[in-house]
Amino acid sequence: MEMQPGVTPTQRTPAIDETISVGEWLLSLLIASIPIVNIVMWFVWGFGSNTKPCKANWAKASLLWLLIVCAFYFFVVVLILGGIGILSRHFY
């Protein structure tokens, strides 16, 4: 095969199977349902180097949702405790 001047040959890399099987998803969801262990594993899967991109993105999204929910709960608790504090001052 002749090469034209100025053209470099491209190397073909083997396609890596990036899909996650149903069994692997079931195991991941089982691990993600265990308190405390789920947060640790989300960090491992989200920022580890040996994790498939699909699972890494799912883990990062789960961590982001956890952060949003914790911030919301903190905001609601502060409002409730603040309301109780205001009411307690009013009645004493």
What does this structure look like?
The protein is 66% helix and 0% strand. The protein contains three helices and no strands. Helix 2 packs across helix 3 (53-91). The protein has one domain. The mean pLDDT is 86. It is mainly alpha-helical and 92 residues long. The protein is elongated.
Question: How do the strands and helices of this protein lay out in sequence?
Answer:
Layout: H1 22-32, H2 37-47, H3 53-91
List keywords for this structure.
3 helices, mainly alpha, 92 residues
Short overview:
The protein has 92 residues and is mainly α. 66% of the residues lie in helices and 0% in strands.
Determine the number of helices (DSSP H or I, runs of at least 4 residues). 3
CA gyration radius, whole angstroms? 25 Å
Strand content: under 5%
Whole-number tally of structural domains? 1
Number of strands: 0
Mean pLDDT score? 86
General shape: elongated
- SSE order: HHH
Query: Uncertain regions: pLDDT < 50 for 5+ in a row?
Result: none
- Please state the structural category: mainly alpha
Helix content: 55-70%
Beginning-to-end CA distance, first to last residue: 94 Å
Biggest sheet, open or closed, and with what strands and sense?
none
